[in-house]
Amino acid sequence: MSSLLVLRALRICINQNHGRNLYKLNFGRQLSHFHRSINSTSSFPQVLSTHRSFASTTESKNDTNATLVDNNTYERVCSETLDALCDYFEELTENAQNLSTCDVTYGDGVLTVKFGNEYGTYVINRQTPNKQIWLSSPTSGPKRYDFVSTEGQLGRWIYKHSGECLHDLLQRELRKILKEQDFDFSQLPYGK
Fold first, then answer.
1. What is the pTM of this model?
2. How many domains does the chain fold into?
């Protein structure tokens, strides 16, 4: 089957429908049947619409529904969260006697906490297009957190697949690293 014939058939179909629909050709047909198809656009097998609708749920497993936040609210909440986490990590790593090397850096919306070769590196960063905070954990891997607010609460960063809050995950995982310290991530903004 000649690719020139296929291109000609597609051009005819698209021109007649002003590019609104894409036509799916059955390339398994015999060449003689294909020649008949070129002369009559009504014999093309099926029309595929180029319009798609996408939906995403804001419901987490613990039945809390996310309130969609506007860009300004997202930026404010995200900055407050990352600033507070940065300050808290700096305090915790300064007081960590069981860790020989620790490094906390924050810039351009990316918080990096290095606990050395034994425990790995945590990266927490803003994802403005998705209105999320992403976490890369050496223990549990990557996660994407949505800001979820419920009645009577300021809101929390929730991982929709498990319903766990970002601050709760950090509390659980860092308990194994910062063994000798008493700390509570839930006291930080958006941790409760």
1. 0.64
2. 2
Task: Name the residue type at position 68.
Answer: L
- Non-local (6+) Cβ contacts of 30 within 8 A are none
Asked if residues 94 and 185 have their Cβ atoms less than 8 Å apart, the reply is: no
d(CA 192, CA 188): 8
- The boundaries of the domain holding residue 43 are 3-49
Cα(82)–Cα(161) distance, rounded to whole angstroms?
Answer: 22
CB 84 within 8 A of CB 170: no
Assess whether 36 and 84 both reside in one domain. no
Consecutive 10-residue runs of the chain (192 residues): their mean pLDDT?
56 49 38 44 44 38 56 92 95 82 92 91 95 95 91 84 95 90 90 82
Examine the domain organization and report whether 93 and 153 are in the same domain.
yes
